[in-house]
Structure formats: C-alpha cells, structure tokens
Amino acid sequence: MSNHHANDYLKKIHQTEFLLSAPTFKLCPDDVGFEVAFAGRSNAGKSSAINTITQQKQLARSSKTPGRTQMINFFGVGSENSRIVDLPGYGYAAVPEAMKIKWQKELEEYLVSRKSLVGLVLMTDIRHPLKYFDEQMLHWAKDGGLPVHVLLTKADKLKHGAQKSALLATKQQLQSLELPFSIQLFSALKKQGLQELALVLGEWLQLPVAESSDNHTGA
Ligand SMILES: Nc1nc2c(ncn2[C@@H]2O[C@H](COP(=O)(O)OP(=O)(O)OP(=O)(O)O)[C@@H](O)[C@H]2O)c(=O)[nH]1
Ligand SMILES: [Mg+2]
C-alpha cells in the first residue's frame, strides 16, 4: 500500500462538505452509499481529527468544553454517498442517566443495523486506556461485522517512547477482546498520522484514486 494512494485519498478528503446535523438517527441521511463513523469519549478529539484530515478549521466544531457536540453530524467526502459521521461523545458525566441509556440504545442500533456503515474509527486520548464504554462500542461493532480502526489521539502529549508503549499496551488490550482492528498514533496538533488515516478512510469509502502512471516506461 503506497503513500501515493494516501495522497490521492487526502485530496478527496479535503473536498469534504457538511451535509446535515441530526438529533437522532431517525433523521439521518438515506442508508445508501458508504459511511464511516467517528466515535469516542467526550473530548477524545473527534472533531479536531475531522477538521485536520479534511484540512478545514471549522468543519466539525471542536471545543474545550466536553460534550459540546450533541448532534450527529454528517459530512460528504466529495459526494453525499461517501460520508463521515461525527458521533456525539459519550461518557460525559453531566448527561442525565435516562438520556444516556436512550442514546446508547440508538447507538447500538445504528452500529448493528446501518447498512451503509462500513467502518468505525474509535478515538481515545493516548493518555487514557480504553474504558468500559469504548469496549461496549467495540462489541457492537463486532456484532455489526464492522471493522474498527483505533486512533490514539493527542499523541503530541507524550514523548516518542511513551507513544510506542501506549500503542503496544492498547494493541494488547484490543487483542484480548478478540476483535479485528487496526490502530495508529494520531495528533491533530502536529498533523501526525494523516496518511495512515487517509488510507483507511479511502479504502473503506472506496474513494477514487488518480490513474496510475507507474506502468508508463521511458520518454
Ligand atoms: N494537544 C492536543 N490537543 C488536542 C488534539 N486534538 C484535540 N485536542 C484538544 O482536545 C479538546 C477536545 O477536542 P475535540 O476535537 O473538541 O474533541 P471531541 O471528541 O470532538 O469532543 P466532543 O465533541 O465534546 O465529544 C480540545 O481542547 C482540543 O483542542 C491534539 O492532537 N493534540
Ligand atoms: Mg466534537
């Protein structure tokens, strides 16, 4: 797999546009095409990752206040049939219990039954191990036959060696769950891991690549 494709995918991903915000999954776009969901605890860095990979400062609102993203936000990657979804963060303590339970039911239904959903990007702050609800998400993804790509976000908060250790520890944690997954380091601040993420999104969303000129010889 080449960086060549990663750059083609990135170019396409830069063309991402906001589609719509939905307060519930009942109001989400038609279940056609391909969709990748970005999920994680509140404040994990979901919106920042979307803004960074799309090279658009304000596409997904990011904020220092946890729980700010209450709506399910849909973005079209060059087309409304290739979508990125910014899911509301979970684990925000101030949300009433009844609302949490209602939301969790909706989330589970979405992950298990949404046909256009082709992958889950699960984000977790590199300084925090996967928590109970992250594992819950991973099990729902497994139930839905959904591949999972884990981003260890805010990697810039740790030195190189500590980044590697965190990567290894989370890999081991995921392996013990016996789920198919891939994992990478990511930093929105340092723009670290963009190509790796672009490759995953490009493949899952089946984004077009430019015609290869590799076969042309001479002249
Ligand atoms: N140092 C550092 N800070 C980051 C990075 N990414 C996000 N942050 C900060 O972490 C906080 C939360 O980022 P968001 O992108 O809003 O997180 P979110 O997951 O969308 O949060 P909710 O929408 O509330 O669930 C903000 O203060 C960001 O500036 C990163 O790569 N490095
Ligand atoms: Mg957000």
UniProtKB/TrEMBL annotation:
GO terms of biological process kind: division septum assembly
Gene3D superfamilies named in the record: P-loop containing nucleotide triphosphate hydrolases
SUPFAM superfamilies the UniProt entry points to: P-loop containing nucleoside triphosphate hydrolases (SSF52540)
Keyword Metal-binding carried by entry: yes
Cofactor: Mg(2+)
Domain EngB-type G per the UniProt entry, residue ranges: 32-207
A molecular function (GO) term: GTP binding
Keyword Nucleotide-binding: yes
A Pfam family assignment: MMR_HSR1
Annotated GO CC locations: cytosol
Protein's job: Necessary for normal cell division and for the maintenance of normal septation.
Family as reported in the entry's similarity comment: Belongs to the TRAFAC class TrmE-Era-EngA-EngB-Septin-like GTPase superfamily. EngB GTPase family.
Protein name: Probable GTP-binding protein EngB
Organism of derivation: Moraxella cuniculi DSM 21768
Gene this chain is encoded by: engB
